[in-house]
Design a protein that fits this description.
The radius of gyration is 23 Å and the shape is elongated. It is α+β, with helices and mostly antiparallel strands and about 160 residues long. It has 2 domains: about 35-90, no CATH class; about 90-155, Alpha-Beta Plaits, CATH 3.30.70.80. The chain contains 5 helices and 7 strands, in the order αββααββαββαβ. The N and C termini lie far apart (about 50 Å). The longest helix has 20 residues, at about 1-20.
């Protein structure tokens, strides 16, 4: 019994000592952010954040940039999103990836929603939303259209950035 207890204690002490000697993982985009609201995208709730110098300006006194971000509910080109405390910050580019049932429907949809066609190959396309266009409602409208198979927003992060 004493040998079993001593063995268990030595294992616990050695693992706790080993764990304290390991360096903590550092997050690459560990920058200061301030939350300015929440947005739901494809059934997932994201935190809308402001990064960098805008955070300091907002903390000292709310400047016009931070005030417009707070007053604009929804998602716009250039907004920054974060899924949780440990997730990477993603920037919304304003590009939409579209796959349709009919290749001719892409140009019709682009004209109907005032979008620019950046790339079009067969029934797949990349559409660019104009600055200031609310993207969540646009994405919902495109997904509700029967001519569209798939529609997604481009989110850019530094996930694949080399070390």
């Amino acid at each position: 019994m004493n040998k079993l207890t001593l063995c268990a204690l030595s294992v616990i002490i050695s693992t706790s000592t080993f764990a304290t000697e390991l360096p903590l993982l550092k997050q690459k985009d560990n920058v200061q952010t301030t939350s300015v609201g929440f947005v739901e995208l494809d059934g997932v709730r994201y935190e809308k954040v402001v990064v960098g110098n805008a955070v300091k300006a907002k903390q000292s006194s709310i400047n016009s940039f931070a005030r417009t971000l707070v007053s604009q509910p929804g998602l716009y080109q250039g907004d920054m999103l974060k899924r949780g405390k440990l997730s990477r910050i993603e920037r919304i580019s304003g590009n939409l990836y579209i796959s349709s049932n009919d290749a001719s429907a892409i140009n019709e949809l682009a004209k109907m929603h005032n979008l620019d066609v950046s790339y079009n190959q067969g029934n797949k396309a990349i559409l660019k939303a104009p600055q200031g266009k609310e993207l969540v409602s646009l994405l919902k409208a495109l997904k509700a259209d029967k001519r569209i198979k798939m529609a997604n927003l481009e989110r850019i992060s530094n996930k694949m950035q080399p070390e």
